[in-house]
Amino acid sequence: MAVIVHPLNIYMCLFFVVSAEMILTPSSLICQDMVKLSRDRRAYEAHRSRDNVVKPSSGSSPSRGSVFATANSTSVAAQIGGTAKLPCIVRKFNNGVVSWIRKDITPPTILTVGLGPYIADDRFMVEHARHLQNWDLVIKHVRPSDAGLYECQVSTHPATSIFIELRVTEASAEIIGAPDLHVRAGSSLRLVCTILRSTEPPVYVFWYHDQRMINHDVGVSVTIDRTSSVLQLQDADTTHSGNYTCDPANAIPAYINVHVLNATEEENPAAMLHASSSGISTALFMTIMLIVAVNITFSLNS
């Protein structure tokens, strides 16, 4: 049989339950059940109310890990003249605004707000892809003065940030075998240029012979990869002697002096070996004759 819980019944039951002289009868047990049901209902309503209340902010900022997918204190390197990309992936964006701020200068300078620039320098821009949640700061034509500390800030309440360090390097070229290289006429000329401290593949590598660009000359082959370039030239002759320059984009160029030796019949390997042997024999003969002359002179003086 269902029991109807009426407030009056509850009050009456409370009176009888708390009475020290109460006798436990079926009616009193029913009253106990009614009181318990009422207490359970009040506890449930109170718990549900607490869950539906929006709690005020305690004043502490959200953890960086809950907002950003990019690690704090990330370090990025870029070469002078190149392009730097400072990462900032925002995991929880909601309705906030992402800003980039240069932090290590006085006063700190706001660079971008949302997708728009905040300063007149058009080298700074934000690269954003909605499905990737990235808000990367891109700096074109990097300068040494761009090195420093940058802040990616999301306008939560209070604001939450991560910091990215930009290191600027100076790339330079180096030609293997420099400063001088000797090759025999008729052989191939192969120059290997490595690019040191580069952070991106070169857009171009120009090769010069005595200050004239030769990348597209007949008989000249130039290959380029991320950190090197190779110049090859078949059947070198004396006209190929001179100064060669390897000049990569956004890097200090390198130089080498090439000497092409004209190979005559007397300068073939066998002839050179014979000439070398003859030279040694002549030198040895002259040394012996000098020793004999000295001994004779010493004997006469004695």
Automatic annotation (TrEMBL):
- Annotated transmembrane regions: 6-31, 282-300
**Could you tell me which PROSITE patterns the record lists for this protein?**
IG_LIKE (PS50835)
Per the record's keyword annotation, is Transmembrane helix included, yes or no? yes
Q: InterPro entries from the entry?
A: Ig-like_dom, Ig-like_dom_sf, Ig-like_fold, Ig_sub, Ig_sub2, Ig_V-set, Zig-8
Keyword Repressor belongs to the record: no
Keywords of the record: Membrane, Signal, Transmembrane, Transmembrane helix
Q: Name one GO cellular component term.
A: neuron projection membrane
| GO BP term, pick one | synapse organization
Q: Which SUPFAM superfamilies match?
A: Immunoglobulin
Record's signal peptide: 1-20
**Domain Ig-like per the UniProt entry, residue ranges:** 56-155, 158-257
What protein does this entry describe? Ig-like domain-containing protein
